[in-house]
Amino acid sequence: MVYGELKIRSYDVQIHRARVEDLERRCEVGPTKRVVLFTDTMGDPICRIKNSPMYKMLIAELGSELVGVIQGSIKLATVHKPPKNLARLGYVLGLRIAPLHRRKGIGLKLVLELEKWFVANDVDYAYMATEKDNEASVNLFIKKLGYAEFRTPAILVNPVDRRALRLSSKTEVAKLRIEEAEFLYRKLMTSTEFFPDDIGNILRNRLSLGTWVAYQRGESWDGSGSDGKFPSSWAMLSVWNSGELFKLRIGKAPLSCLTYTKISRLIDKIFPCFKFSAIPDFFSPFGFYFMYGLHLEGPLSGKLVGDLCQFVHNMATKTKDCKVIVTEVGGKEMLRPNIPYWKSLSCPEDLWCIKAMKNEESTILQLPKTPPTTTSLFVDPREV
């Protein structure tokens, strides 16, 4: 499509890859009032969407200059709306505009073109995620494009200490077979918001490191709960190795943060017996694990979630460049207090916005106002 001298077209790896990578390097990503993250896609600009069932990337050009990009993906997932539970969802991500060409309407035109692709592929709803304090993004999607605020989950980030943590002697941790994990997710989480219908493909993806359950020692686990009997308290989660797709690094940070990082590393080196937790080096490229599909049942399940987080931490210590563990939970999820995280690295209120693609205004107005039917929100690791 052509808008004046602005041209929008589909991404072609042979023609556009180098210029898209250059644009990514010039665009700052992250909350403006805190540290700024840069993304290293390691030579693959579509790395964040290529594991989705359907995906597309658009680029915007002014003359010979590439000035903007946007990505989108499509899947079938749970959205609580009458008369059916499943909906076809289009996810908007990766909107980047060259710094010298912002506030010219390029972002608006890219989103509109991506929405045309959604409509052509029978998408029910489009949705996107942004930081609540990102005024430019909020103005674009809510005020100009008609998206409505949907949910405000929290992104919890915990640094990886290279020392392994000691797990409770009262807890058993077992790895599930993929078939067992899929059975449990479909049995227990199909009413969870945004639960993907192709969960089996996610669990079988090479980036999914596995699914684990934790329960009290002395009780038994039959491997799937197919007989309807579970331990009195238990918890489970899956782990996705996002660091295999792309890397992150901090582009700038307050002087106090830099000073604390250097001092903590010096103390850790000179006095290892103090077991002081040194801050990882976030100023060079690093990877991360993403925990997803968290579920818990029983009076002691909160502690078991904490045990599983420790287990994942110990896994991460064996991956050279994995420096943080990330998860995203609903704002009121009861498991949130049991997940370790650093407040300074986390985002207490991420903002999800949603828009009907089929003129279902009455439905879309009710969705943000309706409390979720479960306390959980399923965050697809392919969209992180």
From TrEMBL:
<dbReference type="InterPro" id="IPR052810">
    <property type="entry name" value="Plant_NAT"/>
</dbReference>
<protein>
    <recommendedName>
        <fullName>N-acetyltransferase domain-containing protein</fullName>
    </recommendedName>
</protein>
<dbReference type="InterPro" id="IPR000182">
    <property type="entry name" value="GNAT_dom"/>
</dbReference>
<dbReference type="InterPro" id="IPR016181">
    <property type="entry name" value="Acyl_CoA_acyltransferase"/>
</dbReference>
<feature type="domain" description="N-acetyltransferase">
    <location>
        <begin position="6"/>
        <end position="172"/>
    </location>
</feature>
<dbReference type="GO" id="GO:0016747">
    <property type="term" value="F:acyltransferase activity, transferring groups other than amino-acyl groups"/>
</dbReference>
<dbReference type="Pfam" id="PF00583">
    <property type="entry name" value="Acetyltransf_1"/>
</dbReference>
